[in-house]
Design goal:
The complex is a heterodimer.
Chain A (H helix, E strand, L loop, with lengths): L3 E4 L2 E5 L4 E7 L5 E7 L5 E7 L5 E4 L2 E6 L4 E6 L8 E8 L9 E2 L3 E6 L1
Chain B lengths: L4 E3 L2 E4 L5 E6 L6 E8 L3 E9 L2 E5 L6 E5 L5 E5 L8 E8 L8 E2 L3 E5 L1
Parallel strand pairs in B: 2-11
Antiparallel strand pairs in B: 1-3, 3-8, 4-5, 4-9, 5-6, 7-8, 9-10, 9-11
Chain lengths: 113, 113
């Protein structure tokens, strides 16, 4: 059974600081997703990582994937208050269907002035 | 705005009742996915349809059923509702080929009293 673990689950940061969220998964996968969710809102797609060594950056967020270690990271650079949200990683299962996204529990990020 | 629409936005009903949630995918997307988000279980994949046919099944209760119609909209039917069914239900859609992206709708918040 595919399991996805995120850590930390809660993260309180000061503006201007850097930090990394980790996402480990238990079995081989060919797709790794990062989503952002604001309270009471839908999921906003941030990144889709499809290959070992993939790195994608958007603004202050950078995601990477190491399929051999079954690890993805979401790095936050010089955090600002607007980044406060819950961040989910999700892993897709191998083969066939594009469905079956398995989500981590989410990391609730709070950026304080 | 992802282009995926869901109705209703909010639904309050009593235990034992039956409700139907509706989803319209993005124009041209053939795949529709249903997810449940609750405090206890987190984000869970329920079921996927592709062009009218069931493609994959996740942790969907027997009291729940879904279908996708010829115009590609989908409905999730929840029956014999229990307090524990209170959750945010998301629909997502994806293109038929090429992209691995899943685009999430705004969700339906179901409260069972």
């Amino acid at each position: 059974e595919l399991k996805v673990e995120q850590n930390p689950l809660f993260l309180s940061m000061q503006e201007g600081k850097n930090y990394t969220i980790y996402c480990n998964y238990s079995t081989t996968s060919d797709r790794l997703y990062w989503y952002r969710q604001d309270p009471g809102k839908s999921l906003e797609s941030l990144f889709v990582l499809l290959s070992n060594g993939a790195v994608k950056q958007e603004g202050r967020l950078m995601a990477s994937l190491d399929t051999k270690a079954r690890l993805s990271t979401l790095h936050i650079t010089a955090a600002v208050h607007d980044l406060s949200a819950t961040y989910f990683c999700a892993v897709g299962t191998i083969g066939g269907s594009q469905g079956n996204l398995i989500f981590g529990k989410g990391t609730k990020l709070s950026v304080k002035p | 705005d992802s282009g995926v629409t869901q109705t209703p936005k909010h639904l309050i009903t009593a235990t034992g009742q039956r409700v139907t949630l509706r989803c319209s995918p993005r124009s041209g997307d053939l795949s529709v996915y249903w997810y449940q988000q609750s405090l206890d279980q987190g984000l869970q994949f329920l079921i996927q349809y592709y062009n009218g046919e069931e493609r994959a099944k996740g942790n969907i209760l027997e009291r729940f059923s879904a279908q996708q119609f010829p115009d590609l909209h989908s409905e999730l039917n929840l029956s014999s509702l229990e307090l524990g069914d209170s959750a945010l239900y998301f629909c997502a859609s994806s293109p038929s080929t090429g992209s691995y992206e899943q685009y999430f709708g705004p969700g339906t918040r179901l409260t069972v009293t």
